[in-house]
Amino acid sequence: MELLDFLHVNQEEGFLPLTMTLKAAKEYGMSFRDVEIVAMNEGIMPLRYKRNVQSLCVQEQLTLLQSNVLIVGCGGLGGFVAELLTRIGVGNISLFDGDVFEEHNLNRQIGATVPTLGKNKAQVLAERLMQINPSLHVSAYPEFFSLERHSTLLETVHVTVDALDDPTFKKVLARWTYERHMPFVHAAIAGMTLECSTNRCLEELYPTEGKGAETLLGNLSFTVACAAALQSAEVVKLLLHRPHLDQTLFMDLKEYETVLF
Amino acid sequence: MRIVVKLFAHYREGRFKVQEGDFPLGTTAAKIIASLELEKTSPLGVLMVNGRHVSPEYVLREADEIALFPKIGGG
User: Where along the sequence do coiled-coil regions lie (chain B) (predicted)?
Assistant: First the structure.
């Protein structure tokens, strides 16, 4: 039986179960990912995306699978963004972080668990993501991102996600990508306050050097998850060429106040 | 001259959300920021007057509305 026949015979109401993808990969000597690509080109959606349909068509799902996203920082924001983008179906993710998980990360960072304490954040997240989607190509860099060393990589990705906790470097990275017309999604949090923007420079948000209110207010789990959800939505919109945020969104979860500027 | 001052997030704590005040001619945005001691709480982020980003040296005018947001940079 040809692969296309196999896929049509084994699809269930337009969806291909994981077990059948694995079986096809083995029988036809292909990678799991390549089987999914062939299936999607035939209009057959991997079953994992059943709850994406209507919001994402099979062609858009294929676009996400073939997209490449760089996440700079794998702590609070980066962990949730990596998780959300993997679950929605982004197929290529590069992760940068030179830090290891510490006990004070357990309050909010999705990769931080008691067993991962002391382990590199990028590598821990990569292992976690691969368990979610066998089609994912994930590259973990256990080092801090540097424009001097890694700008070539930056030029090959479709979107760069700012998941840093250093306003000065956030500003530099935003300016660098802006000047080269490279898609860039920023977010930051402090206490119950968050901000998010797409393809914007950050000089107006960070008029001075140094940290912000996070040193006073800390970083809360739901604030970081909310900011990461907004960033993930922006990444998907950019990848699918849908309208995205064109101002900075500032949100105060204490009073549910949202300001765009 | 009458100026409307709007504060956001934790800048409101112990201060106010919106307040209209009388200020002498020539008052700059920096003067208002200093008078409220905002940066004793945390560094200033966005500074806008009438919805436009301005620098702290901006000289306010009658009926201006100044909005002050704390700088946030955590991840």
Answer: none
